[in-house]
Amino acid sequence: MPCREIHSKLIREVHCCRADPTLLAEVCVDTQMELKLLLTVLLIQSATVPADYIRPPPRKAFHLPWHSKPSSYPQQVHISLAGDQHMRVTWITDDNSAPSIVEYGTSPGQYDSVAEGENTSYSYMFYNSGKIHHTVIGPLEHDFEYYYRCGQQGPEFQLRTPPAQLPITFAVAGDLGQTGWTKSTLDHIDQCKYNVHLLPGDLAYADYIQRHWDSFGRLVQPLASARPWMVTQGNHEVESIPLLKDGFVSYNSRWKMPFEESGSNSNLFYSFEVAGVHIIMLGSYADYDEYSEQYRWLKEDLSKVDRKRTPWLLVLFHVPWYNSNTAHQGEGADMMAAMEPLLNAASVDLVLAGHVHAYERSKRVYNGRVDPCGSVHITIGDGGNKEGLAHKYINPQPIWSEFREASFGHGELKIVNSTHAFWSWHRNDDDEPVKSDDIWITSLISSGCVDQKRNELRNKLMTP
């Protein structure tokens, strides 16, 4: 957009806000963010772009058409793993008397099982949420198709449970938001034959405007109601207002994860196991030093990991520890100093993060140096957010950095067996997913690193 048009838009929006103060709470906030995005576009257009790939410009916010439905009609349906062979179904109704009941079965329209769950709601300044339902169903058969209905009415949904053993495929995309690029990313993920979606923070980019949580829920429902979405929080989920609102109220109310099932006392950090993989979701915005509850829980969780049963160990959090992009440089240093020695002693195979709106994959690394027994770190905060891409990288490229590119996209991790996994990153090239990076990863248990560091891990777990 030419500078003259941006200036005209700014003048129109400022006059609009002055003319109607009631717009300040929502419209003008949206306007500020949109103008920031427009300025980002100008910077991107003026930047030098590699000759081998011309990135399309950022896309505007994606809006779903509004359809009037009964107040008891389930909306924003999504599912998540809730312990062995159980699934949590979450949905929202505008009717506070709607029941938190899920009917389910293995044939369309035939529900031979029923479960009743809990519900919650929250208020945020002038916004009141609908009734948020959380119902756990199961036990469910592994790798099986189920049909279910929420609240005894509305449409029938279909889900598939993950397999009991390897192979298993994860779709990975962080910093999603709800733009046209988000829609492209979701469409590309939908083409992938995956079992579980992993999201390392920054979901809706609601940024205090609570109706944006609702629009995000409607946007992701087609995918999130069919495969479990396992998420952790990012900075855009904080939404705290000093003296008025605690942080993470919206996130914790809407996206309940299996923290209780994993012995955690906070929805901001938890773990789960699926098909031979132990996955730990950490909180970049929860206390993480050696005296914190999160660190204490992490040590306890690692002490329970059986690498014979779950040979692969993955960790997700929002702010990357290894990042050669100029954006958010050094922000993960404190968490890295506190937790990396413990995760290294535990022989974590792969660490996935977001926050930086670009893609980067490291070699196996520990303490800033290439290490054959270190973790592979992947930054994948490029799901399609409204803030645009982080184009500028530090040069020369660090020795530990293997591949990096500022493009929107998603990742696919297929863990084939106890020794090998295949990782691929798929760039959103216009409206087609293009595989731009891939690598075979060998597990640390098969390379002898787990046995080599067994005593080191034991000593760290026993240290008060």
Automatic annotation (TrEMBL):
Catalytic activity line of the entry: a phosphate monoester + H2O = an alcohol + phosphate
EC top class named in words: hydrolase
Name the needed cofactors. Zn(2+); Fe cation
Q: Which Gene Ontology molecular function entries are recorded, alphabetically?
A: acid phosphatase activity; metal ion binding
Q: Which Gene3D superfamilies match?
A: 3.60.21.10, Purple acid phosphatase-like, N-terminal (2.60.40.380)
Q: What is the E.C. number?
A: 3.1.3.2
UniProt keyword annotations, A-Z: Glycoprotein, Hydrolase, Signal, Zinc
According to the lineage, what is the superkingdom?
Eukaryota
Using the record's annotation, list all stretches that form the Purple acid phosphatase N-terminal domain. Answer: 74-161
Indicate the segments forming the Purple acid phosphatase C-terminal domain, all copies: 376-432
Domain annotation Calcineurin-like phosphoesterase: ranges = 169-359
Q: Which Pfam families match?
A: Metallophos (PF00149), Metallophos_C (PF14008), Pur_ac_phosph_N (PF16656)
What family does this chain come from, according to its entry?
Belongs to the metallophosphoesterase superfamily. Purple acid phosphatase family.
**Under what name is this protein listed?**
Purple acid phosphatase
